[in-house]
Amino acid sequence: MIRLRLSVMVLLTLLLAACGGSDNGGGITYTGISTQATLTSANATDLSTSAYQGGTAGSTLGALGAVQSGQIGGIGQSRILLTAQTLEKDLRGLDLHSALGGSAVGAAVSVSNTVSGNCGGTASYTISADDQTGNFSGTFTFDHYCNDGVTQNGSIGVTGKIDVNTQNLVTFSFSVNSFSVSSNGDSFSLTGNIALDFSTNPKTVTMSVLLRDNTGKVFWAKDYSLTVNDQGTYQEISITGRFYHPEHGYVEISTPTPLHVNVGDEFPSSGVLELSGANNTKVRLTADSSTTFHVEADADGDGVFEFNSGPLNWADI
């Protein structure tokens, strides 16, 4: 299990150019079951942990979530948020802030460079910005660019805005066409657009992305919304949205009790992630501590959760 950190609580929007069943020009197509899943004791754990991770359970990457303030760990990240974290780190590594701060009034600023990763490969970028509005745009091209153990390949268009007074990022977005990431033996690719907004608190994250993991399976996280409330010593994360599993169909996701992540913990210590399926069937994933959770299922839709997995280890998903 890898341990990665986001530099700021990220506001992430992943919006596809087209719906599931199309390939968006990036070679990724959702061809799995598109009807609503009927939830049972047999599929409860697979569906809940896959929805939590953003892909097949048992990968080296963890759960949907964000991390605390960039220094101390939080929820083990999904592949989707690993991508967001990695791209954010790429952008923050540019000298765009200094270029804006040092430019002449009314000047357009351009920053272009090729950098080597600390574990191999290169990343090239060209960024242009307006020192009056703080708006910027440009491109990244990654060629087996490896930094801190994460390797990236592909081209990305980027736009955003910097506060010209504080030189802090306000918003930025990425246009991704079959971007691939690999880390610690796990690899995946995705297609779509990614937008991040740092201007609000709590942070709200919305996303919709096609993701192909290293098993060849394609998952679809559609119209996700995450609210991340930073309380200093902990975060509370609420999630809603739809998750498509190629072998089971889709479920609606909610958090009737927000996921509570203490500073320094890898996983949530409390909170409930709930899946709603066909015929009023439901599954609940409940965090018991920062090391264990359990899964329950209401397979007949009567409101009673008759199946209980018993304690499961976060580290095993």
Q: Give me the secondary-structure category.
A: mainly beta
Oligomerization: single chain
| Beta strand % | over 45%
Q: What characterizes the major β-sheet?
A: 16 strands, mixed
Mean pLDDT across the residues is 76
Give the topology string: H per helix, E per strand. EHHHEEEEEEEEEEEEEEE
Share of residues in helices: under 10%
- Low-confidence regions: 1-25, 57-77
Question: What's the total count of β strands?
Answer: 16
Distance between the termini: 9 Å
Number of separate helices: 3
Radius of gyration: 20 Å
The rough form would be described as globular
Structure explained in plain terms:
A hairpin with a 5-residue loop joins strand 7 (186-197) and strand 8 (203-213). The protein is mainly beta and 317 residues long. The N and C termini lie close together (9 Å). It has a 16-stranded mixed sheet that branches. Mean pLDDT is 76; it is low at 1-25 and 57-77. The chain is globular. It is 10% helix and 47% strand.
Give me the secondary-structure topology:
Layout: E1 12-15, H1 44-53, H2 79-92, H3 96-102, E2 108-116, E3 122-130, E4 135-147, E5 150-162, E6 169-183, E7 186-197, E8 203-213, E9 218-230, E10 234-245, E11 249-262, E12 270-276, E13 282-287, E14 292-298, E15 307-308, E16 312-313
Parallel strand pairs: 1-8
Antiparallel strand pairs: 1-7, 2-3, 3-4, 4-5, 5-6, 6-7, 7-8, 8-9, 9-10, 10-11, 11-12, 12-13, 13-14, 14-15, 14-16
